[in-house]
């Protein structure tokens, strides 16, 4: 192997020797307990002598992030429709293909679909992933979660016995406005984050507020995309006044708080001059 | 994608097996140890009270039916007290997993309160005695095991008992629990206990009857895993002790 070989080249060579282990599945380390080496690293820049010992670990079957997201998000989109259009096997033959008398149910369908279509568009055109793949078994777990919850909340919203929100139009209108604002915010953040990696680099940079007012949340929060996402789901809960939606919102909040804290810690570790005012997900609080 | 983040690695060299992570935790401090000893002694005593209560009631009544009533209060008190163990894990004074402990304790508390206490008609069932006896013996051994371990003076008998008697007690307890839940089903159906139906302004429904059936089904994947895990632990712990003895 040449001293100026990159890890990516080593991975390709390894793959030729062992066709079973394609590059994405290889974890190459200098130390069995160390971190995996990145593709861009060059052999002679690593702390090795004239001969280097590299450790290989099989990460298991991998699947691309884009593929994962596409599958995860298409499911809820269509599953919701099964309930909205009241397929016969959902609410029984008597209620098949009927529609709800409540306008909020139509609105909820539009919002839910909008949310997932937006996510799909972002996955294809906006997101830039630092890792190409994730382990295959994650997709089963993730899909069960997303699809399962989508089915559960769609069941109640589109049920013949659905009860519209207690405060009527006021509540619904407020929720719609909040929903649109949060969706716009979330999209703005995704675009801003994507612009940080415009040249295809995989290094991390500190995100800063731009001219877009929605990005000003970066002043207070490390992961405003998660903040806006929670806001979206809170607004959806208010719009539908449905406990399963509320539970889903709670779980999303917990999961995103964990991710936000991780991201925040990573930022703090990598950047000495990281803005100290910022909290992970909720300004000043969390 | 979450990096585990915090903490530097241990400086101790690994033996190459890569078996356990190098122990970074120092173990509970002196105050925590004292508290844990007291906790475990109190729990041992509590379950002994339940055991004695069962025996006395049996001797007084002459039959083993409907003994639940004689130990109802201490059972509820000490089984519910076990919730503290979740906090012990959360605060790190006990090296077990919070999730695993929470799961185990919650399942016990669920059976005590949400089934046996809530569905009065099952309290006279013999299946209740089955799991109460299994729990009582298991807990007495388990808490005394922890007590002695904390004091660094663990008699082999207790260790043996903890890792052997479960072979009978575990299936016994599970059978008692399942039979009790099964017995509760018709009464739950009839009374609509803990159930809410549509329409309601929260747009939510919950059928406790179906929930209990799902709980029963969940025993099928969970019980064998836990059982074989204990068997595996048994082989590890008891053979390790023998090797230790031989090498002395």
From TrEMBL, chain A:
Location of the protein in the cell: Endoplasmic reticulum; Membrane
Family annotation (InterPro entries): 3-oxo-5_a-steroid_4-DH_C, SRD5A/TECR, TECR-like_N
Keyword Transmembrane helix: yes
Bilayer-crossing regions: 63-85, 144-162, 174-193, 213-228, 234-254
GO cellular component: endoplasmic reticulum; membrane
UniProt keyword terms in alphabetical order: Endoplasmic reticulum, Membrane, Oxidoreductase, Transmembrane, Transmembrane helix
3-oxo-5-alpha-steroid 4-dehydrogenase C-terminal domain ranges (all copies): 133-286
Residues of the signal peptide: none
Gene Ontology BP terms: very long-chain fatty acid biosynthetic process
Residue span, TECR-like N-terminal domain: 1-58
A GO term, aspect molecular function: oxidoreductase activity, acting on the CH-CH group of donors
Pfam families: Steroid_dh (PF02544), TECR_N (PF21696)
Topology class, membrane: Multi-pass membrane protein
Family assignment from sequence similarity: Belongs to the steroid 5-alpha reductase family.
The protein, known as: Trans-2,3-enoyl-CoA reductase-like
Source organism per UniProt: Haliaeetus albicilla
């Amino acid at each position: 192997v040449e001293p100026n070989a990159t890890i990516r080249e080593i991975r390709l060579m390894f793959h030729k020797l062992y066709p079973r282990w394609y590059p994405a599945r290889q974890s190459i380390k200098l130390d069995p307990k160390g971190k995996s080496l990145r593709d861009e690293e060059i052999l002679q820049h690593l702390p090795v002598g004239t001969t280097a010992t590299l450790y290989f670990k099989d990460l298991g079957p991998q699947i691309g992030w884009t593929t994962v997201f596409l599958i995860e998000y298409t499911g809820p989109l269509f599953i919701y429709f099964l309930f909205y259009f009241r397929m016969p096997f959902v609410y029984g033959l008597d209620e098949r293909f009927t529609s709800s008398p409540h306008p909020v149910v139509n609105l909820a369908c539009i919002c839910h679909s909008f949310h997932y279509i937006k996510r799909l568009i972002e996955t294809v055109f906006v997101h830039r992933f630092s890792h190409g793949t994730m382990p295959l078994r994650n997709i089963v777990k993730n899909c069960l979660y997303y699809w399962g919850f989508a089915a559960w909340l769609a069941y109640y919203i589109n049920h013949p016995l659905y009860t519209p929100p207690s405060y009527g139009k006021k509540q619904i209108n407020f929720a719609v406005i909040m929903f649109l604002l949060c969706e716009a915010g979330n999209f703005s953040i995704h675009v801003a984050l994507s612009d940080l990696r415009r040249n295809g680099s995989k290094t991390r940079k500190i995100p800063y507020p731009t001219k877009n007012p929605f990005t000003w949340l970066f002043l207070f929060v490390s992961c405003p995309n998660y903040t806006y996402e929670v806001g979206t789901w809170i607004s959806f809960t208010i719009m539908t006044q449905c406990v399963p939606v509320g539970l889903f919102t709670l779980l999303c909040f917990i999961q995103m708080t964990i991710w936000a804290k991780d991201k925040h810690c990573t930022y703090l570790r990598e950047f000495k001059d990281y803005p100290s005012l910022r909290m992970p997900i909720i300004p000043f609080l969390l | 994608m979450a990096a585990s983040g915090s903490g530097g690695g241990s400086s101790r060299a690994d033996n190459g097996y890569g078996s356990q992570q190098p122990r970074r935790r120092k173990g509970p401090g002196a105050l925590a140890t004292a508290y844990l000893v007291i906790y475990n002694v109190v729990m041992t005593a509590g379950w002994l009270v339940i055991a004695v209560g069962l025996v006395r009631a049996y001797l007084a009544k002459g039959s083993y039916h409907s003994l639940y009533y004689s130990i109802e209060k201490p059972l509820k008190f000490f089984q519910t007290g076990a919730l503290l163990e979740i906090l012990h894990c959360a605060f790190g004074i006990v090296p077990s997993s919070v999730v695993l402990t929470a799961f185990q304790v919650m399942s016990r508390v669920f059976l005590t309160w949400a089934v046996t206490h809530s569905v009065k008609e099952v309290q006279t069932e013999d299946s209740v005695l089955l799991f109460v006896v299994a729990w009582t013996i298991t807990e007495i051994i388990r808490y005394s095991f922890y007590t002695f371990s904390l004091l660094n003076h663990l008699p082999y008998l207790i260790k043996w008992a903890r890792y052997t008697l479960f072979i009978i007690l575990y299936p016994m307890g599970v059978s008692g629990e399942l039979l009790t839940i099964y017995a509760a089903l018709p009464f739950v159906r009839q009374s609509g206990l803990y159930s809410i139906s549509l329409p309601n302004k929260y747009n939510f429904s919950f059928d406790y009857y179906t929930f209990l059936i799902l709980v029963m089904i969940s025993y099928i994947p969970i019980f064998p895993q836990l059982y074989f895990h204990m068997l595996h632990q048994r082989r590890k712990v008891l053979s390790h002790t023998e090797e230790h003895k031989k090498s002395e």
